[in-house]
Amino acid sequence: MSETTDETNEEFEQATSAELNDADIEKDRAILGRDWANRSQEFLSTATPEAIRNFATGYGDDNPLFTDPAYGAGSRWGGQIAPPIMAGILNAPLRGERPSKQERGGSYRGIHAFVSGGTWDWYRPIRPGDTLYSFGGLETIEVKRSEFAGRSVVKVNRQVKMNQNAEVVGVYRTLVIYTERRKARERGKYKNIEEPDYTDEDLAKIDEIYASERLRGREPRYYEDVQAGEALPPMVKGPMTTTDMIVFHAGGYGFTPYGLKTGRLAHQNRQRIAPFYIKNEFGVPDVAQRVHWDSAWAQAIGNPRAYDYGVLRECWAHHYLTDWAGDDAWVVAQHDEIRKFNYQGDTQFLSGEVTGKTVAEDGRCLVDIAFKATNQRGEDTMKGTATVALPSREHGPALLPEVPAELQRKAIEMMARHGELLHEGRR
C-alpha cells in the first residue's frame, strides 16, 4: 500500500470518527424558539418563468401550470405559478440583527446530517418575479437512540417564507437527524441490502405505470365527487440513477446548504468550511455531500450505495398531490416522514388514499389524504399526510387559507427592519 493511500485512509478515519458533543446540544437548547433573519443566498432567490419550469422538471413534473406561462394565463391563477414546494429552495438574504456567537447554536462538525421529513403549510402562490426571503430558527431538539447509528440528535428547524411584499407564502419545518458516521458504519444496519437487478419484464411494468400517469390539469376535481376511502392512482419514480441527482441539482435545487463550487471558488469554499471536505480514494478533498452520488463514501457512513435527498422525495410527494388535485385546487399542507433510504437503483411506487373530507367554517372544502412510497423490495420508505382545498359545485372555488395574524405581523416587522438596514446601507 502506498504512502499516499495510508495518509488518505488515516484522514478518512479521522473524518468519520467525530462524536456528538454535549456542548453543541446545550448551545442548541439555549436558542430554542428564537427567530433570526435568514441571511443566506440560495442557488435561486427570484422565481423567473424559466426557474419555475426548470425546478418542476428537475424532479420530473411536467405540469404546464408550472412549465408553460401561456397555459397558466388561461387558468384560475391568471398566469404561471410555481409548485408551492419551490418555496423551500428560494431565498434572498434578509437583513436583520445578527445572532451573537453564543446564539448560533451547535456546529456539529464531522457529524452527518440526514433530512428525515418535513411539514409544509402553504398560504400563497409563488408567481414569476417573486423574490422570497425567510426567517426562523430551531423549534425543537431531542436526543434519541438510533438503530442505524446509536445516539442521535433530532432537530426541527422552522423557516417562514415570505415574498417581497412581506406576504407569508409558507412555513417549512424540516426534521434533521444528526448521527456519528463511524458508529453508523460499525453497526452496518443496511450493509446486507441486496443490489437491484431488473429484468426486462420488471422495467416494462415500471414503464406501464409511467405511461398510465395522468395529471388532472384543467378539469376541476370537485369536492362532491371525492369520497373517503377513494384510492389515488399510482405514480412511479425511478429506478434512481446518478443522472437523477444531476438533473435535480441542475434544475434548481442547487447545492444547498453548503454552496458547492468548482475551481478557484471550490478552493475558497474549502477555506471557509474545511471540515466539510474529506479526501476521496485519490487523496483529493471532496465534499461530504457526495454521499448522494459517490457509493464509496456512502459506504463509509454505513450505507451500501449512494442515496437520494429527503427533499427530493418531498418533491415527488408534492408532484403526486398536485397531479391528482388539478389546476383549480390548492395543496394546503403536506407532512412527510422519510422512513428508509432510497439507494441508487431503487424504484419508488407512490400510492395514496382519501382519508376524510370536511367543509371548514370559512367555507373551504378540504380533503385529507394519506400517501406513501414503497420500493421494489416492498419496504415503505416514506409515509405522509396532506390536506387539499378543492373547488365545490355548492361552495365555489377553492379558497386559500388565511395567514395567522401574529405570523403575518412578524413577517411585516422583519421586512420593515430589512428595509431600514438596506436604506442605511448596512448588511
Protein traits:
about 425 residues; alpha+beta; Thiol Ester Dehydrase, Chain A; two-stranded antiparallel sheet; 12 helices; about 30% helix; about 25% strand
CATH class value: Alpha Beta
When the domains are counted, the total is: 1
Number of helices: 12
Instruction: Tell me the structural class.
Output: alpha+beta
CATH topology: the name is Thiol Ester Dehydrase, Chain A
Q: Could you give the count of β-strands?
A: 12
Q: Could you tell me how far the N terminus lies from the C terminus, measured between alpha carbons in angstroms?
A: 52 Å
Helix content: 25-40%
Strand order in space, largest sheet = 1-3-4-5-2-9-12-11-10-6
Summarize the main sheet: 10 strands, antiparallel
Shape: globular
CATH architecture: Roll
Spell out the helices and strands N to C: HHEHHHEEEEHHEHHEEHHEEEEH
Output mean pLDDT.
Answer: 90
Radius of gyration: 22 Å
Unreliable residue stretches = none
- CATH homology group: Hotdog Thioesterase
- Beta content comes to 25-35%
Describe the structure.
By secondary structure, the protein is α+β, with helices and mostly antiparallel strands. It has a single domain, classed as Hotdog Thioesterase (Thiol Ester Dehydrase, Chain A). It has helices at residues 3-15, 22-30, 49-58, 64-67, 69-73, 181-187, 200-212, 242-253, 263-272, 295-300, 310-325, 405-424, and strands at 36-37, 112-122, 133-146, 150-162, 168-179, 231-237, 277-279, 285-287, 330-338, 348-359, 365-375, 380-389. The strands form two sheets. Strands 1-3-4-5-2-9-12-11-10-6 form a ten-stranded antiparallel sheet. Helix 3 runs antiparallel to helix 8. The longest helix is centred in the last third of the chain and has 20 residues, at 405-424. The radius of gyration is 22 Å and the shape is globular. The N and C termini lie far apart (52 Å).
